[in-house]
Amino acid sequence: MAKFVPVDTFDLVIYGGTGDLAMRKLLPAMFHRMRDGQISEDSRIIAVGRNALSTDAFREMTAQSLRHALRDGEFHASHWEEFQARLTYVQADALDHGAWGDLCQVLQGFEDRIRVVYLATAPTLFGPVATGFRTNNLLTDNMRIVLEKPLGHDSESARAINDEVGESFAENQIFRIDHYLGKETVQNLLALRFANSLFEPLWRRGAVDHVQITVAEDLGVGGRIDFYDQVGALRDMVQNHLMQLVCLVAMEAPTSLSHESVRDEKLKVLRSLRPITASDVKAHTVRGQYTSGAINSTAVTGYLEELESGESTTETFVALKLQIENWRWSGVPFYLRTGKRLKAKHSEIVVQFQHVPHSIFDEAKYDITPNRLLIRLQPDEGVNLSVMAKEPGPGGFDLRPVSLNLSFEETFGIQYPDSYERLLMEVLRGQPALFMRRDEVEAAWQWVDQLIAGWEETRQKVESYVAGSWGPTSSSLLLDRDGRNWYPEN
Ligand code: BG6
C-alpha cells in the first residue's frame, strides 16, 4: 500500500481556475490528496479567472464538477466541507496590469509557505503571468511555476516563452508538465527496465525487431475544437506525450534517478532522432481526419461537421515511423500512432522481439511467434510478455503463444491515482524529475518543426478515416510496407 506523506503548507494559485483542466483534473486530484491526509488544514487553493464569481459561487461550481469527476461514493459531505474551506476565488485578468490588487491582497502575509502558480491557460499567458508575479512583488523564496502543455506552437515560440518566464523564475522553479509522466505505468517503465536485469541485454538492435507506441482515444475533440483546430494531433500529442514515451523506452540507463540524470538521457534520445523532412514525409508519416461513424454502436459526427466553418486540413490522427540514430537503436524502427475517435481508448507500448534465429521445430507445421512485450498504459495498466509454449498433452509437440500477464491493479490491489495527483504532489515537494527541462521541450519542438515544414512543403494530404476505426488505411500500409502490422491487428 502506498504511503501518503503530507506536504508542507502551501498556496496553490491556479490560473484558468474555472476552466476544463482545473475542474476535471486539478481540483479532483487535490480533493483526493486532501482525503488521504496529504494536505494541511491551512493550505489554500486560490483559483484565478476572468469571470466575475464569488468564492461561494466558485465552491458551488467545484462541487458540481467533483460530483461528476469523482468515482461513485467518493463525494463525501464531510470531505467536501473540509475541501471547500480551502478554496478561494479571485477575479483577475492576467493581462491587465491594474488588476493584480485582489490577488496581492489574498497572498499578502503568506510569504513563508510554499507558493505554486499553476498556469492551466493558453501559453500566451505564461510570460505575462510570470512577469506579473515579479513586478507585483509576489515572488517568494519557496516558489515554483507550473506550465501546462502546449508550451508554444513551435520551437521559436517555446523559446520565447521559456525566455520570458526565465526572467522571473530560475530553471529549477519551472515545472513543465506532461501528464503522461505522472502515469503509473509510464513510471513503471523505469522500474521494468532498470530494476530488472532480465530485459536490458535484449533491449537493443539485434534482439528487438521494432517498437510500436499507440495512444488511441475514442473521444472526439469536444468543446476544445477551436483550440484543437489550430494545433492538430502532432502538436497536441506527439510533440509531448509520445515523444516522452519514446525517450523512456529508448534512453540509456541514467546514472541515478536524479532529475538531471534522467533528463540528460532523455535529451540524448531526442537529439538522436533522424529528422523527417520533405523528402521522406510521404514514406514515413500519415495524417488523418475522422469522418462520421460509430463508436460502441453510438453514431458520432465527423470532425468537419463539428467545426463551425466546416473546413479544415488539421489532422486528428497521425502515424509515424521514427529512426533513432545511435548504437543501441540503429535500424530498429519506432512506429507511433495517435488519434481521436478511434475504435477504443487504448494506449500501449509494444516491444516486438526478433524471430528465433533457427527453428528446431518443423517450420511447415509450427509457426513460431516472436516474443512480444506489451506495456499497457490504459485501460487495465499492466505488462504482458508473450512466449511460445508447448501445449499440454501426452502425444505430439504442439506449440502456441501464451501470455505472462501482470495486471498492476490486481497485483497491488489499488485503483491507480490520476497522474495529476502524483504530479501536483511532486511540484509541492519541489521534485522536478517528472517534468520536462527547457532543452527537452525545445529539442522535441525542433524535430516536430522539421516534420511540419515537410508537410507544408509537400502539401501532404489529410486522409479521412471513419470514426470507430483504427485510422486511415495508409496507417496500416506504413507497417505493411515493412512486412509488419500494428498490434492488435486492425
Ligand atoms: C492531452 C491532450 O494532453 O491529453 C488531449 O491535449 C488528450 O487532446 C489528452 O485527449 C489525453 O490524455 P489521457 O490521459 O486521457 O490519455
How would you characterize this protein structure?
The protein has 490 residues and is of the alpha/beta class. The protein folds into two domains: 10-148, NAD(P)-binding Rossmann-like Domain (Rossmann fold); 181-417 and 438-480, Dihydrodipicolinate Reductase, domain 2 (2-Layer Sandwich). The protein is built from 15 helices and 17 strands. The protein has helices spanning 20-35, 55-69, 77-84, 101-107, 126-135, 155-166, 184-194, 225-250, 259-272, 281-284, 303-306, 408-412, 419-429, 438-458, 473-480, and strands spanning 10-15, 44-49, 87-91, 114-119, 143-147, 174-176, 208-216, 285-291, 293-295, 298-300, 317-322, 334-339, 346-353, 372-378, 382-390, 399-407, 463-466. The strands form three sheets. It has a nine-stranded mixed beta sheet with strand order 16-15-14-13-7-12-11-8-17, with helices on both faces. The protein has a six-stranded parallel beta sheet with strand order 3-2-1-4-5-6. Strands 9-10 form a two-stranded antiparallel sheet. Helix 8 crosses helix 9 (259-272). The longest helix has 26 residues, at 225-250. The radius of gyration is 24 Å and the shape is globular. The chain starts with 9 loop residues before the first strand and ends in a 10-residue tail after the last helix. The model has no long low-confidence stretch (mean pLDDT 94). The structure holds 6-O-phosphono-beta-D-glucopyranose. 6-O-phosphono-beta-D-glucopyranose is lined by residues 149, 179, 217, 236.
